[in-house]
Amino acid sequence: MEFATFAERADAMAAEEGDLATVALVAETLAAAGPDASPEADRDPTDSDDLAIVARFLRGAVFPGWDGRKLSVGPSLCHEALARAAGANVTADDVEDRLAETGEIGAVAAQLDLGGQTGLAAFGGGGDAGADDLTVREVYEELVAVAEATGDGSESFRLDTLFGLFNRATPSEATYLARLVLGEMRIGVGGGALRDATAEAFLGASVTTPTEERDEDDRTDELVALVERALQVTNDHGRVAELARDEGEAGLRDVSLAVGRPVRSMLAQAGTVADAMDAWGSAVAETKYDGARVQIHYEERADDNEGADGAGDPDDGPVSIYSRNMEDVTAALPELVEHVRAHATAPAILDGEAVAVDDDGEPLPFQAILRRFRRKYDVDRMREEVRVELRAFDCLHAAGDDLLDAPLTERHDRLREVLDEGVSEVLVSDDAAEVEAFEAEALAAGHEGVMLKRPDSTYDPGNRGKEWLKRKPDVETLDLVVTGAEWGEGRRAELFGTFEVSVRVADESGDASGEHAVVGKVATGITDEELADLTDLLEPHVRSESGQTVTFAPEVVFEVGYEEIQTSPTYDSGYALRFPRFLAVREDKGADDADTLTRLRRLAGDGDDGADGGDDSADADESGDGERDATGAE
Ligand SMILES: Nc1ncnc2c1ncn2[C@@H]1O[C@H](COP(=O)(O)OP(=O)(O)OP(=O)(O)O)[C@@H](O)[C@H]1O
Q: What is the pTM of this model?
């Protein structure tokens, strides 16, 4: 598919307000992304099967959700590439000034007079001004090269490659290139719309026909659920679209988990022992460990010596560990690798928490695990300072069996079979007093709270449903996206001093990657040393700067403590936090995991209390969970 065609279709989606009409446009685009069906002789020789790429691009992604590759292109690199393609009179600062005016990089890219900068394009990276029109596949291949560039010179390779693409782009193409590179398409296509369109385009579902006009034996909901399930299992809209087109329902039914390919984590809502007992009659109670979520994949290998030193080459070992965002964190946690190699008895996918413990094995506060999690350097030294242990609490796959659809109690049995140490203790009880005593004990032992789970619940990847409840007495913290900052004064002039923090806002289609609404400014609770670290962490994400104030691309999440949520005209969320204080950087969370405006409203007592599910209604993007979809079937 020509990239211009993709851009044209994306424009049409962005202009469309109705959910069903958007799904129809997406379905047409998916259907048109395959190879040309015309006879061989008439076929365009550049014609290729771009379905998987187009499906991912529509969601602003280059790679499948499970794929660890990242473009590593921040706003400043993108601005620089745009400025170069716009000619000698435009600088990256000019791009930032325009961004401060228009507020959106796609619009800025479209306004610039790009192209024709042949001289600079000669330096590496595919700048090939004046060549044929860009195709979707070419854009994809260039972006793969950007993501895979490493070592000396990779930064300038990335810049040159992006410049080469922008230099060949029409205004409309430039809009979507810039947004794609920064991961925000803003065309109102949520994961739910893409799922529904896949079912419509390739399985004959009637998503765009209003429910009351459908045949009695209409199977739309069933087909949509089938696509949804395949998305949960594969974490790849591209692959699922191809399967639906090429192998139909049977192909989707056959997809299975793969050891080494991460799955989205099942999430919890807040709830009490009484809520659990009222809803289910009995509950599985478990300690809520205050650590970082890990998903561990163990692939048994003939040459894997039990208890061997797993720290050798974690990239190639039988154990891989992923964060809640499916980022590979294996290298940061060698003791968990060793633990699993020594104690796993069969290939498995395990869900659990990595917790920091002191010399007596007692839990350390959450901040301690953050010093270890995702660490790339000094792992051995930090290992001496902070010890990490595994508390496994779920099992998604064991010895060749996928267990997503098995009840929790069965998954626990399989977990204990497959891992003989490091499994969390559980209590299954129908006695509320007994569960409350369990909770009191967990808190007395220094844990964060308890998890309450429905005993027969299946594992629902990416979903924040009502099957898992979390009960923690101290809930007055929010995970907020850092959207801006002000430079400090005096001796702190080189450091950010005050941080603007925001909740996520889901747009009407449930697309969670869009807007943010400010809830406050955080300046307390931060030491000078932390300020220096935070400045280093946030500087690459600066989007625009004006006087003392900067704005950031939404990437970094702070855990923020507060005393109260008040209504306030000061911020665009309509709320302000009373006494906000910085607690930690949530290294384990991305911007899409931050708290939402809906949750803020509910905590402030303004929400729809009955429908707890309103919380984080757009929490999952890749799989399309939690989104209000066009079928209304959610
Ligand atoms: N026994 C357990 N079962 C499930 N999750 C647990 C358990 N112990 C600790 N946890 C942690 O608690 C979290 C459950 O809360 P939730 O799904 O809302 O995630 P979260 O947004 O990271 O929440 P929080 O900030 O409260 O940890 C899990 O993501 C996991 O990291």
A: 0.78
